[in-house]
Amino acid sequence: MGNADLGQQLKFKYRVPRPKVLSVVRARQSLPSGERSGIPPQGHRPGGAERAKSEKDASVPPVGSAPQPSPAAILLAVLVTVFALLDGSPARADLFDSLDAYPPRWHLDTSDCDARVIDHKNLAGGGVDGGGCESLTFQAGVGSESILIYPIEPVRAFNDLVANVSIMSARKGARVGFRVRFPFVRDPQTRRPVAAIIYGATYEHPGKFQSLGIGNVERELRIKIAKLRSVHGSDANVKNPYIDAIAINAYSGPGTTTLRIDQVSVRGMIPVGDHGRVEMVPPSRETETVDAPGEIGSLQAPRLLQMRRPAAQPERSGKNVVASAFPQDNVIRILEHRGEPLDWVRSLGFDAVLLSRPPTADLLRDAIQSQLLVYAPPPVAPDPTISALLDPVMAWYLGGGVALDNSRVSQTDQTVRRLRLFPETWQRPIVIAPVERWAGYASVADAIVSDAALRSRGLLAAEQTLLYQDRRARIGSGTEVAVAIESSPPKKLAEMNRSISAAIGAPPGGNFRWHSMFTQVVQSLEQSPRAIVFRSHESLVSGSVFAHQRSMALSYVNRFVAMMGPWIASSRPAAPYRIRGAAYRCGRLDADGDQFLLVTSDQSVRDQVLAGDGRAVEILLPPEMVHRTAWRLTNFSAQRIDIAPTPTGARIEIVSPDVAEVIVISADSSLGARLDQSARRFAARAASDRWQLCVDQVRQIRQDWDHAVSSGATEAIMPVDLLTAARRTLDDAEAVFRAGDAEATLRLSRRADAWSVRSSLQLSQALLSGTLPSFSPRHVSSPPIDEGRPTLQTAWQPLMGDEGWSENLIATGGLDQPDVLSSGGWTFGQRKLVRAQSDARWMSRGFFSGQGAIALSAAATAGESLGGGYEGTIAILSSPTVRIQPNQAVRVDAMIRTIGFGAPHQGILVYDNLGGQEMGILVRGATDWTPIRLYRQSTGETEVRVMFEVIGDGEAVVDEVGIRVWDPAPLPALPLRSITP
Predict the structure, then answer these.
(1) Is 12 found in the same domain as 153?
(2) Whole-angstrom Cα distance, residue 385 to residue 362?
(3) How many Å separate Cα 922 from the centre of its chain?
């Protein structure tokens, strides 16, 4: 066999494919044992950078003289050479990224030339070896810097850290470098750690790829430290600098510049704050790089190995400065973290995560790399080993896992005082999430998180706004406010449906009802909050259908908020405008004379919201608005719309509005261009999310209707016309989506979305009203319907009738005995509040049936309303407990009548201990006897009780309370006889 044939076989057999996704090798290797004096070797640039070398001209270095090798040695050398030539990945790289997979990783960080990215994407070809790469095009004016950043986990800055990036451009002059952060030196304005760029090689060969390197950073780092002290003083604490990004100064002159970037590799990475790894440290020093103010410690890589020890915190002087809890130039989006990868969270448009426990070193490193802020509960005591990683921590959060009510104000005050005594490095604003006593908690906090009412409570948009305004007035103007909104179904509801599905073998299916979340977010923007916190009970990467749909919905909502976030952050609430036509509300924000109109649908049944769907909405404006300009931002573009004069003023008409619309009115006609530029940044991703959500929704609703009709669960007629029109519209949307027209995609998707949501609501009502004609859909809670799983409800449909249920298991459920509150097992609990009084009494008149009922009442004693929600909860009536079997279907019935409860989020909340308050039904405005029914499925509970919670000022009468279990009679035996004697 010839040498050529041998080479071809080896190439075919041992070819290692080029990796197509980001590959990070976490296993650390021992550092080189060669000379590490810190002096750059000959042939390196003065700045410590590796010599730039074109990849097209790369060659194998010559082999020196050696003794005559044996045949085995020759074969081994051939194999090693072949592997080296065929393997395109850098040797011993701790991180290698081929940049050929979505999403793009580089981003524009800072510039002094008013740089603006106009195109950024991943290319399928055109890379170093013909594979994929990342392409970025930007426009720049006159200046000297346009910094592109590739975030990495924070690593120590020393000579053996080396990075390489391959770039190609039509212009020369781009430079590669490292971004170094000094965690204990903060910018007085941004309160972020000061950063500096250490540069390496320069791009010098326009038109072809060139591998630019950066390494040997210690010399340049010393120069940066000296400059830093000249600015911030000789006593500036420059200890523990770390590198958190690879940087490219892409500026090569004014005009348009396009860069292709490929093959990012880093080797010699030693993470900051990693206790479990072996690290090179000097024999007589800790890991600090500065020993005392004014004295620079050794930055060289030492020769000895030992386990890292915690470093003692230096003494700090000066007054602690507490910055804002939220960035000032935008409305930030915060996700309650449930273990999702932080880079995935960032890709969904979130700016921060809210943790349930104090941050760890691993999470902080990931947060730095993914450019996410962190809100977390504070530790019991500061941990010096992670002090250098605290940059992402924006604020300490109090309120997770426990209700901060009237009884915990003093305890919280003591906790805040303890946190104020933390070292300066650990000083952060304090964010508190109370459930009442807003003024008391605001006096000790830097920011307050106000939780919105559950969407299943059925509050109108005007009532939501009144709740926000009342809390804001109690909190005061000196405290920042964020709004928290549920982004997932209640945890017990999801567990209950999984139990039902497992018990009867029904398919999963279902659609996440994101439209009500969307409208609630837009309604919350009426109060110009500093941040929006999305509560979450389940991980977005759990793999379920709902998790996938939630991810796309949150991505769409985040983009919608982000496109107008800078304007909302600087605006103030204003009085709403009147609406004529469809049931909508028009909130208003004033941004220095520019009017932002937030139009949201009020057509809802619990958490199901309808869009306009052919109807028109007229917004009535004052006369001075006639000569102004209006734009509609719903399609992620600034679409000009007319302001028509009327005899009494002016009006704007919108035909077939979405569930949430944004309209901007301004006297400045140039505002439209800025709005359009901001919106189009997010249009492509928003169009993709909305179109995919609608496609999944239409397909699932069609399947749900087919299943319900074919199984006989409902006699309603399937809305074939609506579903067919929705499907055809989505087909048209797919064509324009693939053509890159995001605006047309969004317009068609919204139209199909409105028809599919209406079809979904019709199916939910058909499944309930067919067997429960005397019940309003608002007063029936069935877990499959509550979560949006009609197919599961179809399989569970036999339970909707009266047959198969046991007798009432509450012996005193009729409430017919005068002593039922004393000896009947019923209990009445009251909150100890000076501002309210409550009462429960048996009454022998005005009952529904039998001989009596129980009347519950609550009233304020201080002359003002008791409020709604948690702070308005005054008393609770509990039934006797009933023991049931695990995995048992349960039905709860009650008759309710109410008087009063006129304020928002007031009424009588009916719930049970299986579903909890989150699955309860809020009854209000029921002047006549109203039947209430709750269907439940036990998972592990063995006892059930019913609760009636009095919220606010009013009176409620309760009668005929029942708990029943599903206990159908066995099927009769078939009349079969043996065919054999």
Answers:
(1) yes
(2) 12
(3) 28
Give the lowest-confidence range in 29-33, 384-388, 685-689, 747-751. 29-33
Q: What is the pLDDT of residue 547?
A: 93
* Residue 840: strand pairing partners: 856
The answer for 704, left when phi > 0, alpha when psi is -120 to 50, beta otherwise, is: alpha
Q: Which of 265, 725, 753, 833 is nearest to 553 (CA)?
A: 753
| pLDDT attached to residue 74 | 56
User: β-strands 352-354, 373-376: how paired?
Assistant: parallel
Residue 635 lies in a domain: no
Residues of the chain with pLDDT > 70, as a percent, come to 85
Can you give the residue range of the structural domain that contains 171? Answer: 1-55+92-272
- With residue 753 as reference, give the H or E element that holds it: helix 742-769
CA distance 875 to 32: 71
| In a shared domain, residues 104 and 161 | yes
Within 13 A of 99's CA, how many CA atoms are on the CB side? Answer: 29
pLDDT digits (tens, 9 = 90+) for 416-442: 999 999 998 899 999 999 999 999 999
CA-to-CA distance for 867 and 436, rounded, in angstroms?
A: 10
DSSP 183: E
Q: Under DSSP, is residue 95 helix (H, G, I), strand (E, B) or coil?
A: strand
What is the predicted pLDDT for the residue at 274?
Answer: 58
Rg (CA), the chain: 33
Q: What percent of the chain has pLDDT over 90?
A: 64
Q: What is the CATH number of the domain that holds 106?
A: 2.60.120.260
Domain total in the chain: 3
Q: Is-contact 701 767, C-beta < 8 A?
A: no
Summarize pLDDT for 755-765 with one digit per residue, the tens.
999 999 999 98
Q: Tell me the pLDDT tens digit for each residue of 889-914.
A: 999 999 999 998 989 999 999 999 99
Residues 128, 1, single domain; the answer is: yes
Dig out the tokens for 297 from the structure. Answer: 């410690």
- Same structural domain, 904 and 831: yes
Write down the pLDDT at residue 12: 33
Specify if 502 maps to a domain: no
DSSP per-residue string spanning 16-37: PPPP-S-EE-----PPP-S---
CA distance 413 to 431: 12
13-27, 601-615, 843-857: the lowest-pLDDT one: 13-27
Instruction: For residue 238, give Cα distances in angstroms to 180, 297, 323, 364.
Output: 11, 10, 21, 20
Which residue type is seen at 83? Answer: F
Q: Is 129 a member of any domain?
A: yes
Q: How far apart are the first and last CA of the chain?
A: 82
Q: What is the pLDDT of residues 145-185, one digit of tens each?
A: 999 999 999 999 999 999 999 999 999 999 999 999 999 88
Q: Which residue has the tokens 């057999």?
A: 13
Q: Is residue 209 assigned to a domain? A: yes
Domain match, 836 and 764 both: no
Q: Rounded distance, CA 471 to CA 338, Å? A: 28
Q: How far from 106 is each of 151, 245, 438, 699, CA to CA, in Å?
A: 8, 10, 43, 36
Contact, 192 vs 323, CB < 8 A? no
Same domain, 146 and 242: yes
Locus of tokens 């190995």: 305
Instruction: Determine the pLDDT at residue 138.
Output: 95
839 in the same domain as 716: no
Quick one: CA dihedral 40, 43, 44, 46, positive or negative?
positive
d(CA 350, CA 245): 20
**pTM for the predicted model, two decimal places:** 0.83
55: buried, middle or exposed (CB in 10 Å: 19+, 13-18, 0-12)? middle
891 touches 934 (CB < 8 A): yes
Q: What is the mean pLDDT of the chain?
A: 84
Confidence band (pLDDT; 50, 70, 90) for 72? Answer: low
Q: What are φ and ψ of residue 56, in 5° steps?
A: -70, -30
Per-residue pLDDT for 38 more than 80?
A: no
